[in-house]
Amino acid sequence: MTTLSSGFARARRWLREHPLAFDATLAFCTLVAMICGSFTDPGDGHGRPAFGARTPELFSVLLMTLAAAALVLRRRRPMQVLAVTAALAAVEYVLMDPPAPVVMSSVIALYTVASRTDRPTTWRVGLLTMGGLTAAAMVFGSTPWYSQENFGVFAWTGLASAAGDAVRSRRAFVDAIRERAERAERTREEEARRRVAEERLRIARDLHDVVAHHIALVNVQAGVAAHVMDKRPDQAKEALAHVRDASRSALNELRVTVGLLRQQGDPEAPTEPAPGLAVLGELVATFRNAGLPVEVACADRDRLPAAVDLAAYRVIQEALTNVRKHAGAGAQAEVSVVRVGATAEVTVLDNGRGSAGRSPGAAPGGGAGPDGGGAGDGDGDGPAGGGHGLVGMRERVTALGGALTAGPRYGGGFRVHAILPVEARTGEPDRPGTAGGTGLCR
C-alpha cells in the first residue's frame, strides 16, 4: 500500500510539473469515454442502458477525435477550446441521430473556463453554453424534449460551471492565505531588523557616553602627571590615581553595556545598576579632580523613573565632558536639576571661550556657537565634527518625549538645557537602584 501511494504521488507530481502531458492524458481518456459511450443505447425500452446496441458513425468518431484533441490546449486557450468543443457538440446534435456524446468534451472545457476566469465570466459563458447545447439537444434530437438525456446535458454543463467556480475560489483563498503568511513573515523580519537597529543605536550612545567621558578624564590626568612628574611627584601620583579610578569606572560601565549584547543561554556575568543622579556627586568629583570647578544646584529630591534618571545623568556627563575638553583654561561649570510640574529640567552652563571642536552656525541645533566652547560643543560632534555627542544627547532626550537645546550664552560660554518628562514613554522596567529610589540629586 505504501509503495502504491508513493508511486501515485510521484506520478501526480510529474503530471503537475508537466501540464501539457496531463492535458494530453486527459484528452485521451475523454476520447475513450466518448467512444465507449457512443456504443451505448440509453434505453432498451425497459429503462436500462444497453452496451453494443448501436455503432457510432465515422463522422461521429471524427467529431469526437477533434473535440478530444482540442482539450490538449485547454489551459492555453480555454475560451477557444470551449467554443470549438461546443460547436462540435452542436453539430453532432444537429446532424447525427442518435448523437454521440461529444458534449463530454464541452463539459471539461467549460470546467476549465470556470476555474480560470472570474465569476461573472463563468455565469455568462456557462449560461450560454448550457442553454445552447440543451436547446440543440431538445430541438434536433429524435427523443422528446423532456427526455432525461436532454436534461442531462443541462445538468452536466451546470455542474461543470459550479465545480470550476468552486475550484477557482479555493485557489484564490489558498493564495490569499499564502500571501498573508509571506507578508507576515516579511513584517516580522522587518520588525526584528528595526528593533536590532534601535538597540544597536542605543548601545552605541551608551558606549560613546562612557568612552568620551572617561577617556577625556584619563587624557587630562595623564597630561597632568607627565607635566609634574619631575618637579612634583606627589601630585603626579595623585593624577595617576585619578587615571586608575577613571579607567576602572570606564571598564565597569563598559562591562554593563556590553552585557546587553549577551545571547540567551550564555553564562551569567556580574552586573551593576545603570548610573543615575544618585551618583551625580561622584561624577562631579571626577571633573573637579581634573581641574574643572563645578557647582551643583538641586531644587528637591523627587524620585525619577529609571529612563529619565539615566538620561539626565548622561546629559550632564556629556555636557561636562565637552566643557572640560573645549571650554578652555579657567572655565567653570554650573549644573542644575529642578522639577517643574510634570517635567525635570537639566541645565549645564559654562563661561568658557575655547574654540576647539566648535561648530559655528550650529548652535541652535545643538552645536557650539561662534563665541562658546564648552557644554554644547559635542566633543567635536557638531555638524562639522561628524561625531555623536550632541546627536546622542538629543536622541536620548527625544526618545523620552523631551526636548534639548544647546547654544552659546549671551556674554560668552555655552548652555545645554534638557526638558525631560517625569513619565517616561519608553515603557522600560525600573532598574534596581534607580527608579523608585533615586532623587533628583544626592
Describe, in plain words, how this protein is organized in 3D.
The protein is an alpha+beta fold and 442 residues long. It has 11 helices and 7 strands. α10 (306-326) links the parallel β3 (294-298) and β4 (333-340). The protein is rod-shaped.
Query: Can you count the helices?
Result: 11
Radius of gyration: 43 Å
How widely separated are the two ends? 81 Å
Unreliable residue runs = 355-387, 426-438
Question: What is this entry, summarized?
Answer:
By secondary structure, this protein is of the alpha+beta class. The chain contains eleven helices and seven strands.
SSE blueprint and pairings:
Elements: H1 2-17, H2 19-38, E1 40-41, E2 50-51, H3 58-70, H4 78-95, H5 103-116, H6 119-140, H7 148-228, H8 233-258, H9 280-289, E3 294-298, H10 306-326, E4 333-340, E5 343-350, H11 389-399, E6 403-408, E7 414-421
Parallel strand pairs: 3-4
Antiparallel strand pairs: 1-2, 4-5, 5-7, 6-7
Helix pairs in contact: 2-3, 3-4, 4-5, 4-6, 5-6, 5-7, 6-7, 7-8, 7-10, 7-11, 10-11
